[in-house]
Amino acid sequence: MFISSQSSAPSFRDFTLVMPAVAVGNVGQLAVDLIVSTLNMSRVGHIHTDCLIPMAGNNPYASSKEDGEELHTPAEVHSLSSLHTVCLLLFSFVLPLFKLQSKTKKFRQLLVSWIKSSGFSRTVVLSSSHAYQRDDQQLQGTPLRYLVTPSLLKGSADALKELGWREMERVPAFPGLTDGNTEPRLCIPGGGITKGLYTDSCKEDLPLAVLLLFCSEGDNIPDAFALANHLNDWLHLKQPNKWKIPTSWSLLFGNGIPPALF
Amino acid sequence: MATFFGEVLSVYSRAVEEDDDELDENEEDEQIRRELEEKREVHLHWSPEVSESLKSGNKLQCSDFILAVGQNASSFLSVHILSTPNWDTIGRASAWNERSRAVTGQSCEESACVFYRHKDNPTVLICQVSCYVAEDQLFQWTEKVFDCLQLRELNVTVLSDTSVADYKTADYLGGSSAPFLRSLHTSAFGDQPVCQSLEQPNIVTGLAAAVLNHCQVHRIAAVVYQCYSDVIGPDSVTMETYKPVLIKLGRSIQLDPSPSTDALRKFVRTTDLQSNLYI
């Protein structure tokens, strides 16, 4: 649950929540990293839950030695009041273990409950999906897709139309089988809790949007930049110049090379 | 994924697959899940005196809680602190998981997670954890233990073993640099750590991380000293790496700064040979 790191609990009523889903390439998490780092958002609390694997580290957004030694936990909430925007940061993974022990459902319920009680005006989930599972149509054009709940569509239809984004396609349950009774369904392979969160939000009538990129595991930094830029085209969080890369992005592919190797 | 050299590696994505089983669990699944949860539950077994006290609503008075995670950290405390006859065993924790096994010669009473209390200064508690606590048990272990402690003016020190292979640095670490210490502390920790702070992008995981998380959100002063070693198993050089911490611990408890060779030998055994491939 949410625990404030300030003396009193902050109010998020009518704020926009931007949050990642732990998904293929960790693109959503990297994009949120860029947003928090560039906008210099400050931490206002933690989500303390048994659903996430524990980890701890020093400040991943440190700009100097002075603010380098600040402990960060698996799920934190950062805010920028001037933009009425809150970011949920996820530095860890939801406990999967065995299917029967999966905490993903509990974590989704926790998130939905927190979103409802906080009164966010809208929630944007940044996510990704396996590029290799696209069908023939999805292979063409932009890899960006969006989804929006009916509740959010009411207020954002015009903006979304102007942006010209493509809505995530429904796909047949059994591709190749012509069965008139099979409804095409929403499928976000590699998207983690994205689909579940979206369907839960539709049921609960929450204003929520999903912004995702088709991608593969690898160097996903360009994907993170792309997703952050698309989000910025909609929310106008900053002037379109450079995003600030956080210090935690160093050594993403391992240590320095041992000289003895050569 | 594709690497910089062009080869394609098959990589397991850490993204959990979407829940295709939105179908409700059937009764059998639910029963299996409940049984698994019960089996994996963390249990605290306190001495009768402590149990009585906790039952009547009195938490354990605690000014200093020292937690050792790993064989070298535990052995360090055994050699330098627990070797004096001033400690009572007041409890143990059990957490069954896939790595739990009956060790030859060890009865279930010889737990790998034991709590000690100082006889003369009963607000000082030590816990040695030399068993594996699984990822799904870490949060529960921490919540249950801290639920028993009174938290006002509590200071927590965690000594934690880890492999130098997990340490990320731009400059290649030669063989001579390990073992070494790095620290991580909560915002409420007002003292000066005895070693360098853990640099980005390194992180702490496991029980040390779970304790730090708990202390951070509940504003408890806590510090983790993580020892990076290139040796698997108990090793006297790795143990001695924790020595700078003695300066801080010595303020609240009596310790043995120079244990005898016999004392050290007792805790440093030859690792059981599982393979002679690299001898």
Automatic annotation (TrEMBL), chain A:
Keyword annotations: Chaperone
Any one GO cellular component localisation term in the record: nucleus
Alphabetical GO biological process terms: proteasome assembly
Entry keyword Protein biosynthesis: no
InterPro entries registered for this protein in UniProt: Proteasome_assmbl_chaperone_2, Proteasome_assmbl_chp_2_euk, PSMG2_sf
Top-rank taxon, per record: Eukaryota
Function per UniProt: Chaperone protein which promotes assembly of the 20S proteasome as part of a heterodimer with PSMG1.
Subunit structure: Forms a heterodimer with PSMG1.
Family, per entry: Belongs to the PSMG2 family.
Name of the protein this chain belongs to: Proteasome assembly chaperone 2
Species annotation: Maylandia zebra
From TrEMBL, chain B:
Keyword set, alphabetical order: Chaperone
InterPro entries, A to Z: Proteasome_assmbl_chp_1
KW Cell cycle (keyword) present: no
GO biological process: proteasome core complex assembly
Pfam families: PAC1
MF terms in GO: proteasome binding
Coiled coil: none
One term under GO cellular component: endoplasmic reticulum
Protein family membership: Belongs to the PSMG1 family.
The protein's name: Proteasome assembly chaperone 1
Source organism (scientific name): Maylandia zebra
